[in-house]
């Protein structure tokens, strides 16, 4: 891959709009074609009334994948758009067709249906050479993402809101933060946030979180279930999906979260994550202590 020194992140589309069509997408190349309405999506959902995160709905002819729910955000759609605009396919993501927000607060993201299998599902059938080839692809993909730069420094969602990582779902006022130091200071206080002042102690781990790193655009959920690969050989990565936790984080966060998403004994963790993501073992140990302390496991 040709070296990319820096790439200014494209300004995302206005996330306050309740309805947005991307008329330059391939979906709208067919005259008169319209995205399904939220009501049509709801009518096809078997679990919208029984599950807080209903299963996505697939439409055929034309092929559309609709991710929706109360926990889906417009920011995720903005991330898809930004990555595709910035890299023009070298970082493979589903093409975004549009979004809707209905009067019950459900967000509907309409995107390209990726035909393939997840790396998780196909892992046991892969040869070591296949895994190595995809490791090389993931190195290029993550390396590209880390060349995106902000117009002004902050840590938070793509639209300058609170951190979207599910680690912080139960924590109020999770950003945005103007610097890595302020994020680290806040993160390190979380285990003691419910303690009265008389019981608080000097945190032994805070000094191991570096304040002098860089803020990087981060997927924040790089497990094998979010890596789509081809169904047949030669196997290759065809898309990185599920950008709901993506945003601007300290440069150590991608590695920490990649470890967080799998079992300690897992081959993916033991042998592969360190080979496509810059190892940050010290920071990951500290982050794990904090996340366990706040019950985010």
TrEMBL record:
Q: Which Gene3D superfamilies match?
A: 3.90.1200.10
Q: Which InterPro entries match?
A: AGP_Transferase (IPR051678), Aminoglycoside_PTrfase (IPR002575), Kinase-like_dom_sf (IPR011009)
Q: Which SUPFAM superfamilies match?
A: Protein kinase-like (PK-like)
Q: Which residues form a coiled coil?
A: none
Report which superkingdom the organism of origin falls in. Answer: Eukaryota
A GO molecular function annotation here is:
kinase activity
Protein name, UniProt field: Kinase-like domain-containing protein
Q: Which species?
A: Aspergillus avenaceus
Lineage of origin = Eukaryota, Fungi, Dikarya, Ascomycota, Pezizomycotina
């Amino acid at each position: 891959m040709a070296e990319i020194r820096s790439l200014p992140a494209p300004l995302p589309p206005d996330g306050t709009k309740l309805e947005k069509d991307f008329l330059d997408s391939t979906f709208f190349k067919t005259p008169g074609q319209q995205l399904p309405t939220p009501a049509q999506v709801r009518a096809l959902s078997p679990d919208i009334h029984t599950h807080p995160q209903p299963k996505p709905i697939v439409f055929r002819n034309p092929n559309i994948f609709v991710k929706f729910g109360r926990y889906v955000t417009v920011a995720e759609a903005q991330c898809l758009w930004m990555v595709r605009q910035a890299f023009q396919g070298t970082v493979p993501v589903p093409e975004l067709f549009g979004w809707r927000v209905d009067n019950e607060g459900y967000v509907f993201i309409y995107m390209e249906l990726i035909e393939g299998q997840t790396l998780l599902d196909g892992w046991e059938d892969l040869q070591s050479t296949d895994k190595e080839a995809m490791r090389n692809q993931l190195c290029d993909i993550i390396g590209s993402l880390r060349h995106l730069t902000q117009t002004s420094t902050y840590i938070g969602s793509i639209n300058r809101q609170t951190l979207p990582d599910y680690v912080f779902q139960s924590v109020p006022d999770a950003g945005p933060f103007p610097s890595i130091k302020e994020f680290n200071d806040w993160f390190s206080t979380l285990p003691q946030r419910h303690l009265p002042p008389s019981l608080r102690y000097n945190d032994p781990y805070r000094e191991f979180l570096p304040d002098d790193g860089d803020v990087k655009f981060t997927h924040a959920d790089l497990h094998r279930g979010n890596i789509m690969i081809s169904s047949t050989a030669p196997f290759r990565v065809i898309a990185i999906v599920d950008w709901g936790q993506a945003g601007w984080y300290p440069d150590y966060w991608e590695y920490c979260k990649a470890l967080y998403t799998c079992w300690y004994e897992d081959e993916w963790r033991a042998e592969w994550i360190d080979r496509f993501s810059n190892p940050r073992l010290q920071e990951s140990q500290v982050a794990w202590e904090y996340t366990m302390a706040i019950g985010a496991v």
